[in-house]
Amino acid sequence: METTEMTDTLKSVNTTPHLCRSKVKQTALEIAAAIRSANKFNRVGMSFVERIEAKVRAAIREEVRIHPSKGKTLL
Question: Hey, what's the torsion of the CAs at 73, 69, 17, 13, to 10 degrees?
């Protein structure tokens, strides 16, 4: 019984909290169809989505780092 609970808990952990995974996958497939028409991709792996998540986090971090230290709103 504990194994089932552990498996359910692991499934519910969101490894990409900054992204809508379905939209990332949909957009990736649309772009792939447009620029790599010879390859008929029809799936997007979780490792791809996690790499995009890491790049989004890095972009946010960099934007905050270079933002001037005035006011209370990130613009």
Answer: -120
